[in-house]
Amino acid sequence: MLVVMSPNASAADIDRVCEEITRQGFKPLPMPGEVRTAIGLLGDDAKVDWSYIEGLPGVASVLIVQKPYRQAAREWKQESTVVELAPGVRIGGREVPVIAGPCSVETEEQILLAARQVREAGAVALRGGAFKPRSSPYAFQGLGKQGLELLALARRETGLAIVTEAMDERGADLVAEYAECIQIGARNMQNYSLLRHVGRLGKPVLLKRGMAATINDLLLSAEYILAEGNPNVILCERGVRTFDSATRNLFDLTAIPVVQKLSHLPIVADPSHGTGLRDKVTPMARAAVAAGADGILVEVHPTPDKALSDGAQSLYPAQFQELVQQLRTIAAAIDRSITANA
Ligand code: PEP
Ligand code: MN
User: Fold this and answer.
1) Cα separation of 7 and 319, whole Å?
2) Distance 228 CA to ligand 2 centre (A)
3) For atom 6 of ligand 1, which residue has the closest CA?
4) Residues within 5 Å of ion ligand 2 by Cβ?
5) Rg (Cα) of the chain, in Å, rounded?
6) Distance between CA 152 and CA 169 in Å, rounded?
7) Cβ neighbours of residue 34 under 8 Å, at least 6 residues apart?
8) For 54-65, how does the pLDDT look when each residue is reduced to its tens digit (9 = 90+)?
9) Helix and strand totals (H; E) in the chain
10) What contacts 337, CB < 8 A, 6 or more positions away?
11) DSSP single-letter state for residue 286
């Protein structure tokens, strides 16, 4: 439930509504807006005496959020959320940042070279997994803490913000120490204890859509993070499993406008995992920007043929450079721009 105050409501009116919400056993969450304040009501709001609240001074209307998720809903917050990853790197506004890098951090040479190459091409954040959720327990599992240290080194060398995955609570604490943004992978989208944990860390979280998750499931997972008081949630479309084996996953481009209508949270597109095939990444990245994605996450490797994971979907640096140039043109056509690096 959301109590929308009238534009001329006084601070005392707002306090009064908050007191009444507390009196009824719920938690008020005042959200000052540019024109008016809205007050969210946290908890199972089926039992609220909303007609009394509606009659209080300064109350314009009481809105019952019909969706199963609350704080993630557009009804809850009209203005789009902008998550600031680092100074000048905002996701959810007019600017569209490009986050790029290898699937995994492999060696110091590899990650430093990748960081320089993607920065040169126009990326503003570096991706790279230190903790890797691999389908096989015998496949390369990532360098762990050492990988995080190498990412921090790459940040010192290039100034790029770091986005990297955490697979469990302990890993999330470590990632929070080293990175600007904690990635929750597709396989963990419904790991609710991990979601609650990153909700308490307060750092920006990039939440990837599970491979068999509906958009409703994705938004409910985001709600777990928001419910812990962390508003910095970035959603990510990375494709879903279907019967068709022509591509690794079915990249759901429609999810971008669907999510943007249902939620105020930003959504970035990952055409690398979305397609699994290098030659499909460029067209789908272009399409994602045209569809209104708030950011692009793309795998780029200095030598994709030697990559320890996801080489087949990793762009060569020269391909990535060309892609970013094309994205600039596409963004301009819809009155947006690709975030420039300093
Ligand atoms: C990744 O980003 O390398 C990754 C493992 O992604 P996903 O969770 O989408 O499979
Ligand atoms: Mn990958």
Assistant:
1) 51
2) 28
3) 185
4) 103, 310
5) 21
6) 20
7) 79
8) 999 999 999 988
9) 11, 16
10) 94, 95, 96, 328, 331
11) H
Cα distance between residue 2 and residue 266, in whole Å: 21
Q: Spell out the alpha helix ranges (H) of the chain.
A: 11-23, 50-54, 108-121, 145-158, 169-178, 192-201, 215-227, 255-262, 271-275, 278-291, 317-333
CA-closest residue to ligand 1 atom 10: 186
Distance 183 CA to ligand 1 centre (A): 9
Give the model confidence (pLDDT) of 256-266 as tens digits: 999 999 999 99
SS3 213: coil
Pairing state between β 37-42 and 27-32: antiparallel
* Percent of the chain topping pLDDT 70: 100
Q: How far apart are CA 273 and CA 277, in angstroms?
A: 8
C-beta of residue 96 within 8 angstroms of C-beta of residue 338 = yes
Mean of pLDDT values over 25-43: 90
The average pLDDT across 211-239 equals: 97
166: tokens are: 């955490």
**CA angle at 102 for the pair 99 and 107, rounded to the nearest 5°:** 130
Q: What is the mean pLDDT of residues 143-168?
A: 98
Alpha carbon separation from 288 to 8, 110, 314, 334 (Å, rounded): 41, 28, 17, 12
How far apart are the C-alpha atoms of 182 and 129, rounded to whole Å?
A: 11
Q: Of 283, 254, 258, 296, which is closest to residue 95 (Cα–Cα)?
A: 296
> Residue 283: which region, alpha, beta or left (left: phi > 0; alpha: psi -120 to 50)?
alpha
Residues having CB closer than 6 A to ligand 1 are 103, 129, 133, 185-187, 208, 238, 273
Contact 123, 88 (CB under 8 A): no
Q: Token pair for residue 117?
A: 């190459």
Q: Which domains can be identified in the chain, with CATH numbers? A: 2-63 (3.30.70.1140), 83-338 (3.20.20.70)
Q: How confident is the model at residue 66 (pLDDT cuts 50, 70, 90)?
A: confident
Least confident of 31-40, 135-144, 270-279, 300-309: 31-40
